[in-house]
Specification:
It contains 15 helices and 9 strands. It is an alpha+beta fold and 387 residues long. It folds into 3 domains: 2-58, no CATH class; 77-306, Orthogonal Bundle (Hypothetical protein af1432); 314-385. Helix 2 (77-104) crosses helix 4 (128-134), helix 3 crosses helix 6 and helix 10 (224-232) crosses helix 11. The longest helix is centred in the N-terminal third of the chain and has 28 residues, at 77-104. The relative contact order is 0.10.
Amino acid sequence: MHQRIKRNELKPGMFVVSHGLGTFVSPIVHVGAHIFLQSQIQALVPPDVEDVLIDTAAAMPLPDEATPLGAPVTVSLGEELPAARRLYSEALDYVRHFVDGVRRGTHADLNAATPLVESFIESVFRNETAAVTLFKLRGFDEYTYTHSINVSILAVLLGKHLGLGRPDLLKLGLAGLLHDVGKARLPASILKKPGKLTESEFRAVQTHPAESHKLLLQHENMPPEVLRAVLEHHERHDGSGYPHGHKGDAIATFSRIVALVDVYDALTSQRVYKAAMAPAKALSLMFQMRGGQFAADDIDNFIRCIGVFPVGSFVRLSGGEFGIVARANPLRPTKPEIKVILDSAMCPRKPCTLNLEALEGTPESQDIAEVLSPAEHRIDLERYIDA
């Protein structure tokens, strides 16, 4: 619902539709953007504007500052990162071997998937940041393999925030890891096609959930929750998905979780035919699907889990320096920890970590001024992540 308010009433989380009265001296200027930061208002709405039009239905919910989310971190990012890197490398080897085996028609080893996902769960419980930081550093040439790992880790992370126990997290992680195995039977010419798919090519892609389900049915110990999530991960809340066009509560909880994180990772990953979308922009785009392709509660829970500025986001600070979001702040989502890596001229500097919440009210206080695409600025974040 559209509502006209004063410019000084704008707050983070609101969606600005436009400003202006539609007259010669005050033409309507369309904005169509969420406000993530108080500092964004200056850029979106000029100071001389008195009234703005907002969409109250599109307002993005921010976490309740009185309600802590998630368990405390038990290991620092610096301590967990080497272990997470080794785990990710092992997972990459497994998925490569598994997918290549499916392509050749040889027997797929599903038994090794369980201990792998158990390791994901342990890493997430030690430090939620480490594994998520790593998976945005991979190139598009390995997307076929990395996407499954990323979806598994994100599904475990979201499941943890929803309070699921470890047995359910294991099933959820397995569903994420195996959700796209059926794509291995599709021609590479379709999977890597840079242009729009033809109608027949799109129909072929739509067979992959059923193909994945069929392949996993061959494993007698595969949990039914995993099988269902794999089959339903392209179903949508409004019935627009496939393969069966299920809608609403007819779609299982695990299926909805895998569907959400599948879309998020696809949007934020670099592909041969597109650049990676900044995490904050991807969340804003997904928020527009709220109540449509995705249930409102599911989108809200995901945003609360991943944060307004997800870990790995490349940002410019109000002081001019550039850095990576190193740790989200569930209580103060606009005040995460930032690993500063570049000076105001975008030249490398000695890395340091800034806790934006701790600096608030001091002379060193800073805010995130802008979220940027590292690819567009030719910044290789992997050079700095261990620095």
